Sequence to fold (674 residues):
Amino acid sequence: MAKAASISAAGIPAQHAHDSHGTHAAPPKIVAADPPKELQREPLVLNGHSFGWITDAIAGICEGRMPVWWWPAFIISAGVMSMMAALVAYLISTGVGVWGLNNPAFWAWDITNFVFWIGIGHAGTLISAVLFLLRQKWRTSINRAAEAMTLFAVACAGIFPVVHTGRVWFALMPGYLIPSPNANYIWPQFRSPLLWDVFAVSTYGTVSLLFWYIGLIPDLATLRDRAKNKVRGFFYGLFALGWTGSNRHWSNYEKAYMIFAGISTPLVLSVHSIVSFDFAVSQVPGWHTTIFPPYFVAGAIFSGVGMVLTLMIPMRTLFKLEDIITTRHVELMCKVILATGSIVGYAYGMEFFIAWYGGSPYELYAFKNRAFGPYWWAYWTMISCNVISPHLFWFKALRTNMVFVWIVSCFVNVGMWFERFVIIVTSLHRDYLPASWGYFTPTWVDVFTFVGSFGLFMTLFLLFIRFLPAIAISEVKGVTPQADPHHPLGGAKGGHH
Amino acid sequence: MSATAKPYGILARFDTAADIFEAALRVRDAGYRKWDVHTPFPIHGMDEAMGLEESKVGYFTFCGGVTGFFSGMTMIWYMNKFDYGLVVGGKPLFTPLYAFPVSYELTILLSAFATLGGMLLLNRLPKLYNPLFRSEIFKRASNDRFFICIEAADPKFAEARALLEASGASAIELVED
Fold:
């Protein structure tokens, strides 16, 4: 019995030991007592809820009226989003001079915001793809909302590099970003990481959308079957494509889902690697470092999981989803933050070490200037938020305190924005020639365009909660014990094996 | 259930995952061909219980990926070397090295479209009308109940009701076409 207990505690899923080849021999007569309570894993859905309860709890959110808080939240978000639209119109009609950009800081908040938002997206793909391949079943409670967050973050990210070109109509016209010959019959330059970025980000957005949609199909069928009026039935039915839960379909569906996870994993690693190439391939001291790709990917996941927590902790409370997004889910995400935050902290240290060890005076100066130059405040904000705050999650008492976790997740968001600002602006504002040094200060347009992008993000997220199931209904059912035909709760007769 | 209408199939409802699993084994072993299991979530081991073959979606993915990779390489070769070569920094006009990141992304992009398209094609979706949608009890197939449908087109359809009754179905009804 002691042995059985230790195996379960080590995490080997005991309930899947059945032979699935149809002969269906009688279960082996091994009577293993349940391990002691402190060694048992907390279930993924608390209180042993039925399938029907899960459907009602999740589908009910987007079927009923929204709670009272939703309307002020939506109106404020939509207002902030409109402010962004107005500021983008002002920028396009006047020119990029309305931002604080100068020579030598040609990139500042625009590209900072781009990298910030695209990084946030990475958590969604980590949760939906990487954790799927690693068979982390707890992902099912959070993957839908995290994937939605990815799409909305990519939408926010996409705006900045387009509008920062100033004459946007050229950027959007075929020939500059989209391959086709421009006015002089010159094709885009495929040696440039900036063009790789166009392909990486647009592929990422598209594949994330398809992955999200494929996951939604069974849940849209659930909403179609529950629809109370014709309009809802028509639209959910249209997008559910006639899904019937057929096992012949599930067989192809599950294969496709696994392939999506398999291709999204190298995709998500490549996207932020390529974003980091925008900097690392250049010759600018502070950017020209080989550690950038893994460091950017770790930072992206760190920031993204921070944003997932920022959104999920209020969501689970406001919609009373604590039995589906449990304390254990929050704790596990805190551990991801701890792990990736440690990698980020290591990368900060290693950058400094290589700047010294590499022996280039320009490189060493760039790093000294980063920590002790005119932008020291940004650097130390970044260090306190990204290096110190995640290490609070070593303590279980702190990981399980929702208010505390939410506050730390906000620090992570702030810290990761500052990381990109530090990398971009401190490297650019003082490069080789002291005669061309400068200092970047944002204008009000910079600030409010960035604030406005949160309006866009939140508007899209609130609409998502309003119209689509925020948790993957069919996937959550699939990880409950009663979904397993060989588990006593699934109706199996005979011993627990 | 009017006896005059042409039946589409016979639909049986089951209440637990274990019941549907056992019933699927029986229907398979009885030699049925045109039948299906409908569940709100994929049931572990059901493909074997139904005797299904491995899904072929992967072939679509592979073709999409190969197409994506080579169209990326060909596009870049055509644009930056064949049609209008510009020497930049004395570097070769085309090498697969600098063309790799874009081709890699296109591999994934076309794999993704091929995977979704292949899944829909193999499943014959979208199919917005299905006789099963006429059944009132079938609405719970996407919620908390499990169903087996044996189609009237199956040669052993005549014995289907008796088999499903013996398999522990909690409700059985005839679905009209």
Observations:
- Residues 57-83 of chain B form the longest helix (27 residues).
- The radius of gyration of chain B is 25 Å.
- Chain B touches chain A through 79 residues (CB under 8 Å).
- The mean pLDDT of chain B is 92.
